[in-house]
Amino acid sequence: MGNLKLLERRFPAGLFLALSLLFLLLPLASPFRNPLGFQVSTTLTVLSLVVGFLLLSGATVRSVKWVALVSILGSLSAVLRIPFAAIPSVQPCTFLIICSGYVLGPAAGFLVGTLTTLVSNMALGHGIWSLYQILGWGLAGALAPALRRLTRNASSLRTALIIFGFAWGYVFGLITNLSFWVYFFNPSLESFIAVQLASVWFDTVHAINNAVLLGLLGPKTIGLLEGVLWGKNRFN
Would you call 61 exposed, middle or buried from its count of C-beta atoms within 10 A (0-12, 13-18, 19+)? Predict the structure, then answer.
């Protein structure tokens, strides 16, 4: 009975995730084999992914403390982002999103990434890019818990965080660059490569920023969050 209820809660999320695959394949149909059709297909795909992940996250709410922590961390992450917006690709919020996901789990990680985008863009400006930022930061938080299987002590935790954070600087750039490529270029492999190459410097700054912050503050931040949530640090 419990499994059936869980399935019912997760069914809408699965439906939207399945729709994202359908929308991704739209350009194969002749009416969508043009730049406008590609824009529509990409937008619907990303929107469906975001809605699907949000519904999946909402179906795994655990406790009042969990909800409160997610809300606080999402707001704090947004506040961290705003003062650095004038410095291209310096994104201290990514570090906090990854730490949040590592401790609180995939659902919380995605929600913290989503809140970061929604709240900070109220000051910085919303647009079609917001969907791609939600996906980029949300996935950073959602995938961070996978690092728990690779970390057996504080040293391995620091190393895993640095590698993941550095790599995610480029993954985030790859995802968010899609909004620029799809709407301002005639979609092609050549234009895609050109857009990605043009952003390498900015992605590298983001990657280094992530690695430095996670290396210096990641283990301490994770220990603090674990203490608040469980009353103890995993590696103490």
Answer: middle
